[in-house]
TrEMBL record:
GO terms for biological process: purine nucleoside catabolic process. Transmembrane segments: none annotated. This is Nucleoside hydrolase. Pfam families: IU_nuc_hydro. It comes from the Bacteria. GO terms for molecular function: purine nucleosidase activity. InterPro entries: Inosine/uridine_hydrolase_dom, IUNH, Ribo_hydro-like.
């Protein structure tokens, strides 16, 4: 099994990442921590509680974390993820509330309880993890492995020309985390899933239809660019219905931005890597974050050739097989929805 803590800013693709984790038999979900990013942290918490309850995992601790980045003001992106962060989906209100513990405390307590065992996954800004490593500097050594969705290396940004969203929201925290993890042994370097590879994880309506079929949901709808934006799913299966309503918004967003009627599944890919790093080909590099550039603040810079004379602190994903990722997603999330 893979004991895991996930820190998320749910988020449409974070939602599918959560479903993937819940659907994976090898995942031992210890806690979900919430950070501000796509939407405010309190909304993230509601979304996480709601997805967990919908999928029969209401026993997993959900902890609220930082409501603002460590230094700069919060920016959110409802235009990308919908007014509540879950696209057009309207999930049933959760029946429970968040944990009394702060997200950073949860990370610290859990890694102290199970040193060297836990995989950490972060699919939002790195604020909570930065707070946690400031409170417990041993945290990088106590984690088994950290997997991050964030950054853009030899690739255009999606937030500014040089920055990826999760890093751009809180660059100071990102730098704290990359610096803090420079102490871990080479076989435990953080795995970084950046836009260079996550924009190759393109979900199309056909994938969603296959997933619905795998879940035995009727009717199986084939969403299309010709649909009236905001059309709601009539699928009988609640997980499939809500997921379709969420992902439709993401299709519409990407379509509006001339990327086609598809969606980049950044965070679910990172979740799949956290459970099985062998699906990713990585290359070691020293990563730092630009904090002072007037045009480039938040840019992730990779030193691939050791020019800085500093040890590598990241394994950057440089290749994967997107079809294998979708095969796993359809099989796993399909059976979760069927259950
Ligand atoms: C990242 O930004 C967010 O909007 C997504 O959830 C993903 O984590 C991609 O840049
Ligand atoms: Ca995210």
């Amino acid at each position: 099994t893979v004991p895991l803590i996930a820190d998320v800013d749910t988020g449409i693709d974070d939602s599918l990442a959560l479903l993937y984790l819940m659907a994976s038999p090898e995942a031992e979900l210890l806690a979900i921590t919430c950070t501000a990013g796509n939407v405010p942290a309190r909304q993230v918490a509601i979304n996480n509680l709601a997805w967990l309850e919908l999928c029969g995992h209401a026993d997993v601790e959900v902890a609220l974390g930082a409501e603002v980045p460590i230094i700069q003001p919060l920016m959110t992106t409802e235009e990308t993820h919908g007014p509540q962060g879950i696209g057009h989906a309207v999930l049933p209100a959760p029946s429970r509330s968040v944990s009394p513990r702060h997200a950073a405390e949860v990370w610290i307590d859990l890694v102290r309880e199970r040193p060297g065992e836990i995989t950490g996954l972060v699919t939002g800004p790195l604020t909570n993890l930065a707070l946690a490593v400031k409170l417990e500097p041993e945290l990088p050594k106590l984690l088994k492995r950290l997997v991050i969705m964030g950054g853009a290396f030899n690739y255009a940004g999606n937030t500014t020309p040089t920055t990826e969203w999760n890093i751009a929201v809180d660059p100071d925290s990102a730098k704290i985390v990359f610096d803090a993890f420079s102490v871990v042994p080479t076989d435990r370097r953080p795995i970084v899933c950046a836009l260079d590879v996550t924009e190759r994880i393109e979900m199309f309506p056909a994938h969603l239809a296959e997933l619905a079929r795998a879940a035995g949901s009727e009717p199986v709808e084939q969403l299309s660019a010709d649909d009236v934006p905001g059309t709601r799913s009539t699928a009988s299966n609640p997980v499939i219905r809500h997921l379709s309503d969420a992902v439709r918004f993401y299709f519409e967003f990407h379509n509006t931005h001339d990327q086609g009627y598809l969606a980049h599944m950044h965070d679910p890919f990172a979740a799949a890597v956290a459970l099985d790093p062998t699906i990713a080909t990585t290359r070691a590099a020293t990563v730092d974050v630009e904090l002072a550039g007037t045009l480039t603040r938040g840019q992730t810079v990779a030193d691939w050739r050791g020019m800085w004379g500093r040890a590598a602190n990241a394994d950057i994903v440089v290749d994967t097989d997107p079809a294998e990722f979708f095969r796993r997603t359809i099989e796993r999330v399909g059976s979760l929805a069927r259950a």
